[in-house]
């Protein structure tokens, strides 16, 4: 049985940190694009995917944070350690997790570059498939100049926060129908909406964020007595992220219903009730900020996961770690330069992460339910049931989305 120290609300608020970083990671071009298209195409009908995603991300990120704090290790390292006496199972798990993280990360990278590119394209008129590769080269430079990235991320996080507030305020101004909102909270998949459902889940419950959160939590907290702080951080942060995502979908569902979304200019329409003619440049700047912030983090996230799985050094002095950064960005550049509709590229990137999500969920539930890993801090029956539900629901939706392609 867990015995945790009692903390005041002030203590908990001061401890907010790793969870906010996770929200900053998933509130990117993918979330804005997916939620806008979902609202414009299906109104409020897919609001339930936001609710499910928030519950799922709270459950999974809490497990990741708890693992990091109690073991003072990352998720990847603990998976390898726990299965070290069963080589076939260990390598099967490594291959599955590595494949899911790499493919999901590459897809996300393509979406991040494309999101930044459509923001720049909206302001300059230069085609996004030309802007994206140029920006990709910029990312390669940024991730190799150390502290400059941290300074840039702080600045961009302010821009993304302002954009999020604007969406929430706009949602209130447009006065959505409350009865219809309640109906949207009931799970229902409209015709041809399965890939959008997967994208909505994949853009919030991001597989590599679970690995990043475990590492971030262990660096922030060093004692199991601090678990209440981590849980408060996770819960409040993910709810804030869900409110922002829901606000985008609801605003689009109110202002843009029936519209085709194919550019930043189309997405900006939903902000006109608040910003008027300034909505297009504002959203473009927001997409650029969100895209830049995510694009810098994504290759590093993939590299950290592989480093944990294969016991590399977790810095650029290890050539394999460094090469992974480069490869993820280069493949992302190729994806973003294909010339396909940029909105479709971003939607597909989120869907790919949603399809691979069950693999990471199962791995996380497995490792956090092991007594020899977490002892008294292992998953309770309720947490295992919740984790199992997340895995099953995401698996069913993922399989359905793949079948819909044939």
UniProtKB/TrEMBL annotation:
One of its GO terms (biological process) is iron ion transmembrane transport. GO terms for cellular component: plasma membrane. NCBIfam families: Nramp_1. Keywords: Membrane, Transmembrane, Transmembrane helix, Transport. The chain crosses the membrane at residues 15-35, 41-60, 91-111, 117-143, 155-173, 193-211, 232-252, 282-309, 321-340, 346-369, 381-403. GO terms for molecular function: cadmium ion transmembrane transporter activity; manganese ion transmembrane transporter activity. It comes from Clostridium symbiosum (strain WAL-14163). It comes from the Bacteria. The lineage of its organism: Bacteria, Bacillati, Bacillota, Clostridia, Lachnospirales. Its main location: membrane. This is Manganese transporter. It is found in: Membrane. It is a multi-pass membrane protein.
